[in-house]
Amino acid sequence: MSSKEAARAVWWMVWAVVVVVGGCGAPDSRRDVSYDPRHGEAGLMDVYMPDGAGPHPGVMLIHGGGWRAGSRSAYTDAAKRLARSGYVAATIEYRLVGEGGGYPGTVQDCVCALAHFRANAPAYGLDPRRVAVMGYSAGGHLAGLLGVAATAPEHVPDCAAGATDPPNAVIVGAGATDLRGRDHSWVRDFLGGTEAERPAQYASASPITHVGPNKPPFLFVGGSADWFVDIDDNGYVMQRALSAAGNDARVLQVTGGGHLLNATTDNGGLMLGTSEVTPEAWIAIIDFLDRTVGR
Prior knowledge:
Helix content: 25-40%
Largest sheet: 8 strands, mixed
Strand order of the largest sheet: 1-2-4-3-5-6-7-8
Number of domains: 1
Strand content: 15-25%
Structural class: alpha/beta
Radius of gyration: 18 Å
Order of helices and strands: HEEEHEHHEHEHHEHEEEH
CATH superfamily: Alpha/Beta hydrolase fold, catalytic domain
Shape: globular
Number of helices: 9
């Protein structure tokens, strides 16, 4: 790396830290926005807006929880941070397994939320042509699926907002990219049976099977010590497949990071949190967003 390239890299890192820590002013918000009234609480989103009229780039955040738990509140702090950094951020609910969710309904909810977000862009100061999707764990799986298969017939929703194009960029945090061969009760519940009983669903619900050319840019974030979603078998495998098809796809591996436990700045300490909220991950995420959909 030349001295000029090194200086540029340092400048961007400092700039990203300033944006992440300081950002813009306190974000305005709209809570309990209904993107699909048919599903009550499961059809709600919160929207956080930066200062200024815009139009601003946007990020739709999809929470994790094994498709059967969790809520949009898990991403409230991240949404506020993104809004302070100049992004319109939406945190969404979706139907969970056991509450009317499962495949493909849960995926259709996420597509419907993205369609609503874009359709109401003027109200949020959003540029609908610059919207990323970001999720963690089960939310990362759903974000990845939207990135490569939002327009697949089985994923198109019948909600009022209708269908929409894939997101313009995707951040997959510790999300499974291939559900085939995963004999786990959570996967079976999400897909409605075993792989032997529902092979087509296991394939169509796996982002890796939809990889092809002309996909949006992807960033995969995961920990090297994640025992639940191995980054080698998920993020790296799909990154290579996307790159081979001519797409922009990158991986950030957080050294020593787990699924829910990560190292802190205190040497030897651990924090309860996801690998995507580590400082190095946020620098990479903001840089990726700025490069793909941002300023």
